[in-house]
Specification:
The protein is α/β, with parallel strands linked by helices and 562 residues long. It is built from 23 helices and 20 strands.
Length: 562
């Protein structure tokens, strides 16, 4: 069919099954928005208040749905405002396609109004990017964009489209591109099964790749069949149910003692869809010193990049796990190994967890998260911003369903939480979406209350207000002799802010009032803003100091170890 480029973009999105996009109009992208107006009802458009929120919302949509997220921005500052979110998506392997406008083809390189070379700017932080200058390119380029975003290790793609390419005519024909994931050889799968059967102290560490491949059921079957303890990375949370009998906790800097201790004593680690981030390994020279490592990952670049893999299995996590389950795996007793996990977990519960949930003074983040997690039930998605609120949410949330944890991991992007929750809610209208935020991160994108108001999105917002940049303050207390350099916040009245957007709210500062405030939030039909005034001196433990071995994990400000 003979249509203009702007309509061709819409037809391409429809061919890819796109139902929702997040964006912000402007001069350069106006032809596309004009066609979007003519095609109302075919694609839902969520108008954000800042382009950074558009890309984070697309991330939340993708992470919670398993689909490719899509965001749209105009040329120049509209495009450059996407950069932080694009980098975030690259670090966390989130499939998104970002469509940005560009100036007229003849104006390229002439410092035209709102000209910015977004292709060069985003080259290091995308899987692929491309600038379209003629409408005939739109169909094949967008087909490749969606294939690249979702195939292999997923990630962001940026497509810049000149204004003339949106207005000129093209004979549109669209063909989706397919892909196949690599598969390890039968011999390598058999070798892995033999190593697992021979191991006396094995540990499975499941990362975000398990979620990305939809391998949750295969993982559960695998660890049950072979009798393996399984831990997750922070990004892997919710790929295993919190009450799974084989689950031993979350590894890493603020992870639990048991899986960190087990890592250092294991004779075999089966790493699935994780990249051995420094937040997981600590000082890599002393990491898992007694273990052989089987590394399962779809991205061959990740295997051996951070930690040597003794047996690399390059392939989709679900396919590899299903192949392993087809082998003659033997469920070993390993009684002493399980005893270690239970004993260490019990010590942590007595010496740390109980104290975190029984504060001496005021309200704590630990209590707020724990009570919300219990009262909200299982049909929920937990979204976080970045900082102490994030780590407390990871530690005290209960996960019963897959894709129910959304947080910024690799880049650690403050301001991520609120727009990501918007995307998650749009993708999951029947789930309770709860976002935990600190007072610092919330104020980086709090204008998105306007998006929630306009769309009437039933997002439950929980602000942990301690009047500090809490994680930085914690580091200043522990490692900088309490020199609190520019981390104390003089905050506005957040209840008035929420009220200005017509969002009902409550403020709670005592344990006696906490459950009542939570129940009010959860029972409200529509968005709700709950401000929890928490202790300013609260720290998140356990903790491993940056650059230290994971043997150095401690439970309090006196660096006490279990």
């Amino acid at each position: 069919m003979n249509i203009n480029g702007a309509q061709a973009i819409i037809e391409a999105l429809l061919a890819e099954g796109v139902e929702t996009i997040f964006g912000y109009p402007g001069g350069g992208i106006m032809p596309f928005y004009d066609e979007l107006y003519k095609n109302q009802g075919k694609i839902e458009h969520i108008l954000v208040r800042h382009e950074q929120a558009a890309v984070h919302a697309a991330e939340g949509y993708a992470r919670s749905s398993g689909k490719v997220g899509v965001c749209v921005a105009t040329a120049g500052p509209g495009a450059t405002n996407l950069v932080t979110g694009i980098a975030d998506a690259m670090m966390d392997s989130t499939p998104i396609v970002c469509i940005t406008a560009q100036v007229q083809k003849e104006g390229l390189g002439a410092a035209s109004f709102q000209e910015a070379d977004i292709v060069s700017i985003t080259l290091p932080i995308t899987k692929w990017n491309h600038e379209i200058t003629t409408p005939d390119e739109i169909a094949p380029v967008l087909a490749k964009a969606f294939r690249v975003a979702r195939s292999g290790r997923p990630g962001p793609v940026v497509i810049s489209i000149t204004k003339n390419a949106q207005t000129e005519l093209t004979d549109f024909h669209y063909e989706k591109e397919s892909f196949e994931a690599p598969v390890p050889s039968r011999e390598m799968i058999a070798n892995a099964a033999q190593w697992i059967n021979a191991s006396r102290k094995p540990l499975v560490i499941a990362g975000h790749g398990v979620t990305l491949s939809g391998a949750e059921d295969a993982l559960s079957e695998f660890v049950a069949k072979a009798g393996l303890p399984v831990a997750t990375t922070m990004m892997g949370l919710s790929c295993v149910q919190s009450d799974h009998p084989n689950y031993v906790g979350c590894v890493g800097m603020h992870g639990s003692h048991a899986p960190n201790r087990m890592t250092q004593q294991a004779d075999l680690i089966i790493a699935i869809g994780m990249r051995f981030s420094d937040r997981v390994t600590g000082n890599r020279s002393g990491y898992a010193r007694n273990a052989r490592i089987i590394h399962i990952d779809i991205d061959p670049v990740e295997i051996g990049k951070a930690v040597k893999a003794d047996l690399p299995l390059v392939g989709d996590a679900r396919a590899v796990l299903e192949a392993l389950c087809a082998e003659d795996l033997q469920c070993q007793a390993r009684a002493s190994w399980w005893t270690l996990a239970r004993e260490v977990a019990a010590k942590e519960s007595v010496r740390l967890t109980a104290a975190q949930l029984s504060p001496q003074n005021g309200l704590t983040m630990a209590l707020v998260v724990e009570r919300i997690s219990m009262l909200a039930g299982n049909n929920k998605i937990v979204v976080t911003d970045v900082g102490q609120n994030q780590m407390f949410a990871a530690r005290f949330s209960y996960f019963a369903d897959r894709r129910s944890w959304i947080s910024s991991g690799g880049l650690g992007t403050m301001g991520y939480g609120l727009p990501a929750a918007i995307g998650a809610k749009v993708a999951n209208p029947d789930k309770t979406v709860i976002v935990f935020m600190g007072d610092g991160g919330f104020q980086m994108n709090m204008q998105e209350l306007g998006t929630i108001l306009q769309e009437q999105l039933n997002v439950k917002m929980v602000l942990m207000n301690n009047c500090w940049l809490g994680m930085v303050r914690q580091w200043q207390e522990l490692f900088y002799d309490k020199r609190y350099s520019f981390t104390h916040l003089h905050n506005p009245d957040f209840q008035m802010v929420a009220g200005a957007y017509g969002i009902p709210s409550a403020r709670v500062s005592s344990l006696d009032d906490l459950d009542g405030a939570i129940e009010k939030m959860l029972s409200t039909d529509g968005p709700f803003f709950l401000e929890a005034c928490v202790e300013g001196s609260e720290n998140i433990f356990p903790m491993i100091p940056a650059g230290a071995s994971i043997d150095k994990i401690f439970i309090d400000k006196d660096f006490t170890q279990i």
